[in-house]
Amino acid sequence: MTSSIQTSTRPPAQPLYILRGHRAQVHVVKFVRGNKRLLSGDADGFIIIWDIVSKRARVVWRAHGKAVLGLGAWGGDKILTHGRDGTLKVWQVREGEEDMFSNALPVEGGMGHWKEPWLLHSLHVNTLNFCAFSMCDAPVVPTSIQSTQEVLIAVPGTREGHVDIFSLPSERRLHSIPPAEEGKTGMVMAIRILYINTSLHVIVGTESGLTSVQKLNPHSDTWETTYISKPHTQPILSLGVISTTHPLATAAASDIRYLTSSADALITLNPVQKIDGNEPLKICQTRHSGQQALSVRSDGRIFATGGWDGRVRVYSAKSLREVAVLKWHKEGVYGIAFSAIGEGELVQEGMEGRMCGEGGDGDGGEGEVGETLGGMRGGGGIVGRKREGKALETHWLAAGSKDGKVSLWEVY
After folding, report:
1. In CATH, which superfamily holds the domain spanning 2-11+26-349?
2. Please, which of 130, 223, 263, 365 could form a disulfide with 214 given CB 3.0 to 4.6 Å?
């Protein structure tokens, strides 16, 4: 295990666009549909589907009576929303039918005039601990006559420290996983469910600062703990999974790592199976407590966190070195999401990149941001220069804040 202390004196970049639509604090953001759309969910239960090309709202509705905890996409036309009202819902919103719905923004006032999309499923789940759901595709069964790809949903169980796994579209509960360690671990605060080769794994972060990985034994239908550690003194706020090979779905367990961020100032890099004792591979002392909403970019090279201090911090996934601090929001950042990038667009170690400040609010800036991200520069040319293609190829980073705004940054 290695440990490092991070400091940074680099000036912050400026966002490319600011999306102003929510009246309440934004809790979660997610890119969907090949980066053509951005979902954002707020503390009042509203969902906005943003058009990334025009930067305008396409669909607005109130999905939940309380705060939105998580968002997901299933196929090309289904959106999952997870609310503090104790429900996880699946909505059908086809791209060609977006004009059927209201795009009136919550920040503009008014109540009760938003048409809801077709509700396909609604699960009653435990939401007492503010932990968002996690999802993954189930293996395809060649003999199945089911036309819809099955997905697995992991949520905190009703018993402390437990995790429940549901299947959609059947809505059946398949598993209730007990804590990896007996004793008081506290509530489940963060979950990731994923297949590593053909084995189902669940990664958990708890209120006590403990993190664990459990693997399903398909023969006995029991869960085996492959890794457990307590690197944090405060609750774990977020998890992110990285593969040292590509893609994640075909990687071996020895090639998979995962990150944890916490209410303390630590970020840790962990294996999914014990290597040399139950200790993280790396620990980064960031000196910034309350980094949450950790998001790993699809190429596995960088990740970002949203901070209670309003900063978005970008790190190298290999070294855990801080490579950029993005400062615009005056209040805490609760939701972070990268747009997906293709395999041919992988960032090369040490290559020059840029962050642009342009458009929306006339924000722009210059300054050095570190080895991985290179530089940043203002001005320049998305609008009017192959606008749609450029917008969809841009390496976006979206940040949703307590101030009700979503900032869009370009990160290479």
Report:
1. YVTN repeat-like/Quinoprotein amine dehydrogenase (2.130.10.10)
2. 223
